[in-house]
């Protein structure tokens, strides 16, 4: 497909944006080239590097994030990889990559919708690399952690299992308190509905009390195994925050969105604060989470996000890297809970930043907004449409369901562009590689 000329559809100010982006664009080597992630050295002094994605089902985004992450780990002392995934699922991966004992009774991770988001070939290859790298550098192992809060039932079980091992009496207290949530196991949205109908939060006191009880014995628990306590405390925090989240879903999308991103930020903050983890983190999450919400239409809906909170907390030591594409294929579902499909991504709308990037005629590039002069930044700091595809993609309604007005050069510090992309490759349900039982994806 030929590159579309700006004169075909762009206004004068949009042509200025094309010219500005063309001047900033640094063509990228092929994704599999050894020097693809050359620019990652510019991220070396950051405390937190947030790597985005314009969809949850695009291979190029996963592969690019993996390449950048590898360079930051190998050359610049980043030992935390924190992803938009649930804490217990990521913990199973972390035990594998850091050569920690396997828990034979735990479920294989990432079995809930959307399974393909993390259970795919691209992630599998990165996990294998991380395990091999940690074997070669055991004094500075890099870990894999989850930031999200959808694993309420699994986190409850993790807290009780931990307490069974270190404090059986408190484990019985946990069973009694968490029993309040048992009627809604696997149906947490129904808990939120029930709380709304009753006019009060039936389980709030119980889950908050359990977290307080756990933290009250922090010194005793840490004396036995500080890392195991940290894991249990994060699961208890997740249960507390998830209880609030499912209630908030019935009061408005902004409140539930903010609770979720606040939880992700506080989890990231806790990880960065753990001295044994090295204090420098790489985040993998959607553009809608890692771009600064203040520079998008999200702020007009009363929403903030992880990227905004990171900038407010760490300033210039938090670097936000967005990703974009014009067309190609994506792995996505039509509705929540549906099977994965390989869908064709429509060429971007003419008024969007994606159309401007495509009009540069450069197939893949990096734009570094931090050091651009005011003249080049100005056309890229205006509000224009930007596309967001999550695990759901509905091409027939995408103007309304997948576009948000954004100011690209203020939303991100860097922007990676791939004009045509492909779908991720989901893993087979069963591994045929003769993997040991400890391998997290070897079902």
Structural class: alpha/beta
Helical amount among residues, as a percent range? 40-55%
Quaternary structure classification: single chain
Which geometry do the CA atoms define? Answer: globular
Helix tally equals 16
Q: Distance between the terminal alpha carbons, to the nearest Å? A: 41 Å
Specify Rg, calculated over alpha carbons. 22 Å
Account of the protein in words:
- The chain is α/β, with parallel strands linked by helices and 443 residues long.
- Helix 2 packs parallel to helix 4 (121-136) and helix 5 (152-166) runs antiparallel to helix 9.
- The protein has 16 helices and 11 strands.
- The two termini are 41 Å apart.
- The chain is 43% helix and 14% strand.
- The strands form 2 sheets. Strands 1, 2, 3, 4, 5, 6, 7, 8 and 11 form a 9-stranded mixed β-sheet that branches.
- The mean pLDDT is 91.
């Amino acid at each position: 497909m030929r590159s579309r000329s700006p004169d075909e559809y762009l206004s004068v100010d949009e042509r200025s944006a094309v010219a500005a982006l063309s001047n900033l664009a640094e063509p990228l080597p092929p994704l599999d080239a050894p020097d693809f992630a050359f620019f990652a050295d510019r991220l070396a002094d950051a405390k937190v590097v947030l790597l985005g994605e314009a969809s949850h089902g695009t291979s190029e985004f996963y592969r690019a994030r993996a390449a950048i992450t590898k360079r930051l780990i190998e050359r610049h002392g980043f030992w935390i990889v924190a992803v938009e995934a649930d804490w217990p699922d990521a913990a199973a991966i972390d035990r594998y990559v850091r050569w920690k004992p396997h828990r034979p009774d735990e479920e294989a991770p990432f079995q809930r919708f959307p399974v393909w988001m993390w259970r795919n070939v691209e992630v599998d290859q990165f996990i294998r690399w991380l395990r091999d790298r940690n074997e070669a550098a055991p004094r500075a192992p890099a870990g894999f952690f989850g930031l999200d809060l959808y694993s309420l039932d699994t986190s409850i079980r993790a807290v009780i299992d931990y307490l069974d091992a270190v404090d059986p009496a408190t484990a019985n207290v946990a069973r009694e308190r968490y029993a309040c949530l048992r009627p809604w196991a696997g149906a947490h949205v129904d808990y939120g509905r029930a709380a709304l109908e009753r006019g009060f939060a039936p389980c709030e006191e119980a889950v908050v009390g359990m977290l307080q009880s756990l933290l009250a014995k922090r010194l005793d628990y840490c004396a036995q195994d500080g890392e195991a306590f940290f894991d249990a405390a994060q699961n208890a925090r997740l249960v507390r925050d998830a209880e609030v989240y499912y209630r908030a879903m019935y009061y408005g999308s902004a409140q539930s969105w903010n609770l979720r991103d606040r939880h992700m930020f506080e989890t990231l903050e806790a990880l960065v604060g753990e001295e044994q983890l090295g204090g420098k983190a790489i985040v993998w999450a959607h553009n809608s989470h890692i771009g600064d919400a203040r520079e998008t239409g999200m702020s007009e809906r009363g929403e903030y996000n992880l990227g905004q909170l990171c900038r407010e907390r760490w300033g210039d030591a938090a670097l936000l890297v967005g990703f974009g594409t014009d067309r190609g294929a994506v792995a996505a579902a039509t509705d929540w809970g549906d099977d994965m499909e390989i869908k064709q991504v429509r060429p971007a709308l003419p008024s969007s930043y994606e159309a401007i990037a495509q009009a540069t005629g450069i197939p893949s590039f990096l734009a570094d907004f931090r050091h651009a002069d005011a003249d080049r930044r100005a056309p890229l700091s205006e509000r224009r449409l930007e596309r967001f595809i999550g695990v759901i993609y509905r091409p027939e309604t995408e103007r309304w369901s997948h576009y948000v007005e954004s100011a690209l050069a203020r939303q991100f510090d860097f922007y990676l562009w791939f004009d045509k992309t492909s779908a991720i490759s989901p893993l087979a349900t069963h591994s045929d590689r003769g993997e040991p039982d400890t391998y997290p994806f070897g079902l």
